[in-house]
Design brief:
By secondary structure, the chain is of the alpha/beta class. Helix content is 32%, strand content 25%. The chain folds into two domains: 67 residues, Hypothetical PUA domain-like, domain 1 (Ribosomal Protein L25, Chain P, Beta Barrel), CATH 2.40.240; 161 residues, Alpha/beta knot, CATH 3.40.1280. 32% of the residues are buried.
């Protein structure tokens, strides 16, 4: 049986012991019913995996003894998505959860001309990402960056592979055929009304390549999920 993983963002790399916060302690002891002597794992979200044994099964301040620590390789290549957040918060929260489980590296809230929601509840979204990281048994927490204006992002991004998915007619290749596995990548996903022609042209001028996600017109969070899934699977296939 897999050992349960708990989030410990403030744990020191050389820690010999650690005390979980109240929420984590309650979940570990009261919900999962762990007790003294049980083995658990701690994740700091930066790749370190701490092997530990519960020494104080207090539901408010569960204490553990660290028995070993190793650092897992960082996800490679980096997979970033810049996506316009929707007015309906539950839809973008769903996307963040699933993208984190699949293995997204970075999420950038993208503010384009037609973006409906420019402000984000960072703490709530961060908690969703943490939960998804633990659920999928990963040890790297995806980065959630501050919202970025479209023109700034396309002008400053230096990823080797830069893609923009849009709905306007024109010469575009299907993502599944155009994507080059093994390269650090950023993909832009627009709002419900799509990017404006001016935004698309600016991205192309800055070296972004246009891609299609299929013939159906997708909601923003669906387009995001298709993109993340396709790119992740192609990276996995290429590495095997």
């Amino acid at each position: 049986m897999d050992k349960p993983i708990f989030y410990a963002p403030d744990i020191a790399a050389d820690a010999a012991a650690y005390t979980m916060n109240e929420d984590t302690s309650k979940y570990c002891i009261q919900v999962l019913r762990h007790e003294n002597g049980d083995e658990v794992l701690l994740a700091d979200g930066r790749g370190r995996r701490f092997h530990a044994v519960i020494t104080d099964d207090n539901r408010k301040r569960c204490g553990v003894r660290i028995t070993a620590c190793d650092t897992l390789p960082a996800p490679a290549p980096a997979l970033r998505i810049a996506i316009s957040f929707t007015k309906n918060a539950s839809r973008i929260e769903w996307f963040l959860e699933k993208a984190a489980e699949i293995g997204i590296t970075t999420i950038i809230p993208l503010v384009s001309h037609r973006t409906e929601k420019e402000k984000i509840k960072a703490e709530r979204l961060q908690n969703i990402l943490v939960s998804a990281m633990l659920q999928s048994q990963q040890f790297y927490l995806p980065q959630l960056l501050e919202p970025q204006p479209f023109d700034r992002l396309v002008s400053t991004n230096t990823d080797p592979q830069r893609l923009i998915a849009h709905c306007l007619p024109g010469q575009k290749r299907e993502l599944i055929h155009h994507f080059q596995p093994g390269k650090d990548t950023v993909i832009l996903i627009g709002p419900e009304g799509d990017f404006t022609p001016e935004e698309i042209q600016l991205a192309l001028d800055k070296g972004f390549e246009p891609v299609s996600l299929g013939s159906n017109r997708l909601r923003t969070e669906t387009a995001g999920m298709v993109s993340v899934t396709v790119m992740n699977m192609l990276n996995i296939d290429a590495s095997e």
